[in-house]
Amino acid sequence: MTAAQRDQATDGLGRRAARRRRLRPGNALALVLLVIACAIVLLPIGWMLTIALKPDNVAAFRIPAEWFPTRYFQFDNFVRTLTLPDRPFGLYIVNTLIIFAGNVVGTLLSCAFAGYAFARLQFRGRERLFQLLILTMLIPWQALMVPQFLLFSSVGWYGTYLPLIVPAFLGNAFFIFLIRQYMRTIPRELDEAAVVDGAGHIRIFWSVILPLCKPVLAVCAVFVFLGTWNDLLGPLIYLDRSSQFTVAIGLANSVTRRDTEWNLVMAANLLMMVPPILLYFALQKRLIGGIASVGLKG
Length: 298
Prior knowledge:
Blueprint: H1 3-22, H2 25-52, H3 57-60, H4 76-82, H5 89-120, H6 126-135, H7 141-154, H8 162-165, H9 173-183, H10 189-196, H11 201-212, H12 214-230, H13 233-238, H14 247-253, H15 262-282, H16 284-293
């Protein structure tokens, strides 16, 4: 028997063994449970899609319930929901992305600098300051809502995007913690080699440490995007003109006391789910790798 034939026979045995492992009762039961769990999770989304494809509320809430329209699918609902004159979701998306751009730049810069200081620099009281920073994570945002509103109103920022963007440039305890923990896993020999070459702390941070932190920075950027995209309370407090409204406010305003067009509301909800899903699939490997690589080194 030649080497090629032996390799082919070994591969065949390996495939048969893998099939036997997959067909074990335990694996089959786990697969069935996963399918049931996925069905339960996706059931609300399927129901939203069903209502979004129906022509009106009468068809949407007909009893017995219809999972599929009996006449035709109303795909025009997805176009109509983006072009409504009283709820221009296209403008809301642009406004949300403007806030996100400011938040992601401010968060990554401020948190990366603070994380580098806590991870790589030696100074008196560093651990005490880091413990104090972690304690601030226990303070709910609702407790700071009124003082922040009074502060931003007194400086004339009410009715602008500044109260929703500027705090990002002052750091976030959770993201500082993530970046600090990740930076502590980077070998210090890289810093020492850069110092030998005459680099200072700014050069080490910008040219050595920051390029190695792309996974954790991607994780932070995704969290910032989700927080900005889903934020309702912040824009609702500080924005007073409909031309400034964000996606979350637009979705909330879609539901009225009477004559709510639920098919258009569900179509808008489904469309607003698309950007986070696309972002996840685009950054899936980096996101999962970044979360997995954030150690808990003390």
